[in-house]
């Protein structure tokens, strides 16, 4: 048996029952692939079901407000995925009459769709022999063939794509691609895989060389920076607060948050009181303030760590137009803000 036959045979026995595996409808396959980027299936499945229930067709998703999409996405992170999801749905509905492109090349032209997603949709929905290459595939192929080329550099990306393309079953690319992804998720796991039950145990180079835990090779090239976020949680006597839309480009674009002071170092109480933004917002308004969390809440992203404090500012009247505290949960927010709203005891 060749590589593809072995892995698809394994898949026929061990595959999980997942809703997107019961369809070849491009909308559902696309939705599942976008949701599962950077997301485990156990976390992504409820989101997939929620999106399918609320937006059963690409037209429903296209007709939604972006804020509705972001709210439903809340908690998944990488919010650019949700914004691109909505933009692409709008384009497909309005410009392509709801019909997805059926080739890898044309799928790649859609916003938010890269090599992996285009390959998955083309193969699963349209039976095109386009090989998927993701973290699972890198891991399987690097271990099986003993490849030490770094996967996060151009040379490695090209090498693994070429190898994956050579291995795919051109007569059954959909099954092959789903099998190799499932094999990486369930058998050839990142840590402590059970190689004793692996169908490739007699031919895997990494197993023979005792280098399973060393592959794939990924070189560090992103320096992580630290940022210090200070959210100003205003509470007025008429139970209102300030909540603003984050309009500038970045990880949380178009999500809502409390007014933010971003600094290069942590703020203590004296530095907070002396802050120009605090002074400009309050502008001689009588207020009392307290610090919700003495210890920074650390939110770790791939390229930066956010050290966060929430400052509670009680005022008789807000310095600008606000919203009722009871409305906070209706806005799409990032996970830091969402958790705070859930945990803080706002006045009822």
Automatic annotation (TrEMBL):
It is an enzyme of class 3 (hydrolase). Residues 35-186 form the HhH-GPD domain. Its EC number is 3.2.2.31. It catalyses: Hydrolyzes free adenine bases from 7,8-dihydro-8-oxoguanine:adenine mismatched double-stranded DNA, leaving an apurinic site. It comes from the Bacteria. The keyword DNA damage applies. The keyword Membrane does not apply. Adenine glycosylase active on G-A mispairs. MutY also corrects error-prone DNA synthesis past GO lesions which are due to the oxidatively damaged form of guanine: 7,8-dihydro-8-oxoguanine (8-oxo-dGTP). This is Adenine DNA glycosylase. It comes from Aquaticitalea lipolytica. Binds 1 [4Fe-4S] cluster.
């Amino acid at each position: 048996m060749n590589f593809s036959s072995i892995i698809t045979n394994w898949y026929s026995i061990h595959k999980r029952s997942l809703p997107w595996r019961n369809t070849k409808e491009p909308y559902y396959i696309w939705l599942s692939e976008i949701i599962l980027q950077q997301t485990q299936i156990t976390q992504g499945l409820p989101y997939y079901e929620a999106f399918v229930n609320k937006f059963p067709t690409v037209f429903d998703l296209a007709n939604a407000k972006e804020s509705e999409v972001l709210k439903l996405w809340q908690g998944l992170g990488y919010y650019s995925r949700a914004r691109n999801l909505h933009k692409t749905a709008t384009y497909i509905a309005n410009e392509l009459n709801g019909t997805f492109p059926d080739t890898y090349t044309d799928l790649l032209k859609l916003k938010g769709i890269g090599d992996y997603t285009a390959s998955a949709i083309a193969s699963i929905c349209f039976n095109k022999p386009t090989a998927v290459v993701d973290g699972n595939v890198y891991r399987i192929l690097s271990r099986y063939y003993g490849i030490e080329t770094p996967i996060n550099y151009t040379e490695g990306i090209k090498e693994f794509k070429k190898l994956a393309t050579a291995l795919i079953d051109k007569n059954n690319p959909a099954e092959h691609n789903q099998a190799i992804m499932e094999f990486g998720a369930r058998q050839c796991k990142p840590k402590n895989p059970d190689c004793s039950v692996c169908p490739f145990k007699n031919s895997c180079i990494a197993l023979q060389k005792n280098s399973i835990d060393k592959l794939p090779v990924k070189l560090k090239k992103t320096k992580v920076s630290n940022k210090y976020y200070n959210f100003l949680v205003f509470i007025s006597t008429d139970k209102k607060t300030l909540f603003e839309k984050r309009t500038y480009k970045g990880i949380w674009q178009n999500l809502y948050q409390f007014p933010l002071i971003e600094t290069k170092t942590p703020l203590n109480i004296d530095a907070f009181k002396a802050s120009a933004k605090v002074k400009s917002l309050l502008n001689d308004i009588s207020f009392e303030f307290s610090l919700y969390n003495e210890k920074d809440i650390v939110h770790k992203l791939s390229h930066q760590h956010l050290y966060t404090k929430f400052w509670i500012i009680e005022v008789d009247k807000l310095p600008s137009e606000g919203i009722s505290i009871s409305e906070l949960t209706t806005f799409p927010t990032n996970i830091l803000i969402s958790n705070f709203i859930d945990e803080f005891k706002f006045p009822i």
